[in-house]
Amino acid sequence: MKKHNFSAGPCILPQSVMQKASQAVVDFNGMGLSLIEISHRSKEFVEVMETARALALEHLGLSDKGYTALYLQGGASLEFLMVAYNLLENKAAYLNTGTWSSKAIKEAKLFGELVEVASSKDKNFNYIPKQFEIPGDADYFHFTSNNTIFGTQVKDIPETKVPVVCDMSSDIFSRQLDFSKFDLIYAGAQKNMGPAGTTLVVVKEEILGKVSRQIPSMLDYKVHIGKDSMFNTPSVFAVYVSMLTLQWLKDLGGIAEIEKINNSKANLLYGEIDRNPLFNGFVENAADRSNMNATFNLTENANKEVFDQLWKEAGINGLNGHRSVGGYRASMYNALPLESVQVLVDVMQEFERKS
Ligand SMILES: *Cc1c(COP(=O)(O)O)cnc(C)c1O
Fold first, then answer.
1. Same domain? 269 vs 293
2. Is the beta carbon of 234 within 6 A of some atom in ligand 1?
3. 67-97: per-residue pLDDT in tens?
4. Is 161 among the catalytic positions?
5. CB atoms < 10 A from the CB of 327, how many?
6. Co-location of 278 and 232 in the same domain
7. Does residue 141 contact residue 158 with C-beta atoms inside 8 Å?
8. Is the pTM of this model over 0.85?
9. Same-domain check for residues 238 and 318
10. What are the tens digits of pLDDT across the range 23-75?
11. Residue 279 sits in which domain range?
12. Is the CB–ligand 1 distance for residue 170 below 6 Å?
């Protein structure tokens, strides 16, 4: 039986994508060859790469606007330093909203002055700071749009005249935003768009080439752009599955449609967390709650063993919270059906009846 998969990452992908991907591993498009045994320079794979790059820009509304999409390797974690390597000449401004922001800050500090404009560390990152100044002379401003571990999400893009860089690993393609306000977006594929092994980078080309340092080829966005994201052998399978996932999203009606479904899922679950006397939400203000990762705890008198047994029996997977937060985390990425959230809510209600 297929489980209800609330895993935080790697995580659920659409069933139809899994089926097509498994078929392509055996025989890709009737070639008599597997997708993973052909040259990445073959016209068949080049078409996959070009389709995946174009679809990413199309979904974000950034086609023909001076942006390039790249599928790189090294995860979002390599982007923490690649961003600074390519963009940080004097000083950069960072908003610290959690573990991933803190890691990005640590790497960027190696390249220049770092201004932490605000941090929610004082309350174990259970809110999004709103009042802060972004220095007008910063080379760029960096933030994490969705804090996968703590379950908070930045709802309004901070206003600034300096280039905006965003780690969208866990909420890319999940909601409508004015993506032209961003100059560089990066996202590890394994949260909302594919398997682990590739990282999407969408960059406005005009912001590049402004630092004086020499950049090693593999870490230079301009080199990857010049080689159409094929400077070295790409993660062919991960790029292919990302392409299929972006096609699935397009067939569904794109970000506008998936956002409605994501809102329904989040409203259903948060509604139950707020209503049910045995649960407490982790995030301080409802406005800061993530639509992708809902974090919650049991109240003191609730029996953890009983609840854990109930959700496991219901075929739910991946509900345990990250070790730095504890409690539970239900990740509701694009591919998670509304029905799975309903199963979880039913379990929470059954738990209440049994307590
Ligand atoms: C998972 C995650 C990362 C780390 O991604 P890797 O691909 O493992 O390097 C970074 N940022 C955010 C927001 C994440 O959710």
1. yes
2. no
3. 999 999 999 999 999 999 999 999 999 999 9
4. no
5. 18
6. no
7. yes
8. yes
9. no
10. 999 999 999 999 999 999 999 999 999 999 999 999 999 999 999 999 999 99
11. 254-354
12. yes
